[in-house]
Structures are given as C-alpha cells and as structure tokens.
User: What shape does this take?
Amino acid sequence: MHCNQTLLTLYFSPVILEDNWVNECYKFFSRKHLRAKAWTKDAFLEDQRLDTIWIVRDSLFTEHTDFWKTVSSPQFVTASEIVASFADEAHTAWRSLKSSRSQLYRKLVARSKFNVLVSGTPFPLGPGTDAEGVLIHCGGSFDENGRWGDKLARSFKRLVVPENWDVLAFRVLIAPFYLRRTRESTWNGKWVVDVQVARPVPWEILPKSDHCSEEAAKRKYFKRGNRKETWGKIIERADKQRFLAWTSVYEEVDEEVVKLKGNSQCNKKIEEIIKRRIRYEKPSGRLERFVALIKEIIAIKERFIIVSDRLFLLSMAYYVLHFSFLTADHIGMQ
Assistant: This one.
C-alpha cells in the first residue's frame, strides 16, 4: 500500500451514527474549511487533504478489515501522523480490554496528539469499576508510554487499586480535562439544550409533620439488627414502614398479603381493602400534603403523571385521588 506523508483526524463512531456525523459537520463548518467523510480504503488513499475528518465506524476495528490492515501497516505508522481522535459512545470500546477493538483503539490513541472521548454514560458500571478503562483509552497507560506525566500517572495508578479507590479524589484529578454539558451550556450565544426542553430540577417536598404515623410504622415493623437477616428482608421491612407511614390501611393489607401470597387474586383483594377503608381513615401527614399538591396542580389546569416504585403506593394514590373528588381523566399513571 502506498501512503504519502499525511495528517489525520479520526472520528470513531457507531455504525448507526456515521451519516449523522457527516451531516452534522456541515452544520457547523463550511466545506471550504472542514469536511467529514466516511472511511473507506479507496477514499482514504485518494484523499490526502489535511482538512478531512475521517469518520470510522466501530465495526471496522475488527481484525483483518481494510481499516485494521491499513492502520496496522508499517507504512501507515511511519508515514502518517494522527492530529486528533474523537470517539463517540466511547464507553463501548473498553467493555473488554482484551478485545481487538480496544487494542487497536489504544494503539491509535497512543499516536494521536489530542484525544476526546464522547459518552452520555462514561461510567456504565460506576467510576470505581470503569475509571481505569476510561483513562487508558484517553491518555494511555500509567507508565512512560502514557501521556499523563509522572505525577498524574502515579496518582491514577495508585487510585485504581480497589482498596485505594476514592471517588472524590478521582473527581479532583480528572477536573482539568473532564467536560460535561449542563443546562447552562451555550454555543455562539445560544443554549445547547433549549430551556423549554431542558430537564427540570426536581422539586423535593417534605411530608407534613406527623409523628403519630411515623412512630406507628416504627413500632409495627422495627426490628433490632439481626446478622442473619438477608438484605432482601431488610428492604422488605423498610418498605412496610414506609407504607404504614403513608396510611394505616396498610396494616390490614399486609395481613391479607401474608394470607394470599402467590395467589392471583392478591392484588384485587388489596384494592378492595384500600377502596373500603381509605375514605374513613384519618389521612396521614404524607397523604394530606399529597392531596393538597395534586389539587393545586389541577387548579392551574396542568396535566401530571404519578410514578411509584411500588404497586401498593400507586393503587393507594389512585383511590385517594378518586375519593378526593379528582377524576382519573386528569392523571397519567405508571
């Protein structure tokens, strides 16, 4: 293969995003100054322009593809210089450090003068698990072959050992080169994410003070530490305390669940109990605040969705709203 002295900018992208990045390039840059092209062997050999960004789909990182053969050849290594590399959905590359994709990517990163990893989920399994893979695919290994410098390399090498892991120290170390888009991010004076569709800041509402319901829940389900108790049992007791703090109706529901556990009619029976008792029970502080909030939202004619991680709370919310003179037509539930 003949390869002239050339400078390259590589953008590694999933197959489904290849065309997107080619099109996006022309939204921000004139074709006179910068152009993006999908990588093929023939196109690459014909185009020696320095202002071409090569979009390389991740499937080309498999061994024995044209791309793998081209960038692994001695001629490419000696006659080409990689100016910059950008990797979209970059976290997919280091799922296995032994994969051919990871090994080839790290070789190219080691030769690139400027590396960028782009990902909405940079640490899928958490920083403690994924930090080492992310760092190696960005700046290389933590030795003389990496790009970190002695001080930073020593810090990262020590930090990624499980017994030394400290997420706060990790945040401090990556701060100089870790960038993220926020609700306040702008480009040329315009919001990157329009303020009308930006994710709102959650509004946390504390329940109305109600010591009676809270204490009743603790007395009913509190149990001093038992080393033999499984985490599942601990979580179950915590759930029951929360349910009883919401409504005293749960005490009868819990008794019925124990009797009908595994029975297909269990959920129907629970709904019957809630429906029968909820209108006569004195509402807890949590329910009072919940109903007041929903009434306020309906008064200003807004639609809303109630989301719960437990079916009992969702069933209870439905009947509470029903008997609070609210109709289900206003509500979406999931």
In short: The chain has 14 helices and nine strands. Residues 1-5, 325-334 have pLDDT under 50 and may be disordered. The first strand starts at residue 6 and ends at 13. The first helix runs from residue 18 to 28.
